[in-house]
Amino acid sequence: xxxxxxxxxxxxxxxxxxxxxxxxxxxxxxxxxxxxxxxxxxxxxxxxxxxxxxxxxxxxxxxxxxxxxxxxxxxxxxxxxxxxxxxxxxxxxxxxxxxxxxxxxxxxxxxxxxxxxxxxxxxxxxxxxxxxxxxxxxxxxxxxx
Length: 145
What we know:
The protein is α+β, with helices and mostly antiparallel strands.
């Protein structure tokens, strides 16, 4: 399970070290896709497969389905961490998420995200507004039992 937040920097060869707590990926690594908030999503193969199967089940005659396939599959990259837990992200993914020197890894349970620190700070501002959050999430059925 991917939880919490971690900051890491790219090394001089452009590799990014995955936080130790996130290195529970299988031998086949993970899939990196564009997130919907100018971030990246790093999905273990089983999670990626669920999304992939849903995309493949969508009708090619639906313009929104074609766009979603282009966003997700047209930019997806399989990454296999090296022995030191480092990955190399494609330039198009780095450009999309505006990643330069430092990044923020954010756990999301079944997957994790990679954020530009400034964009993540904007998200934290949104997340920190308790009054708005109470209204925003009121309709969600979030029960502990």
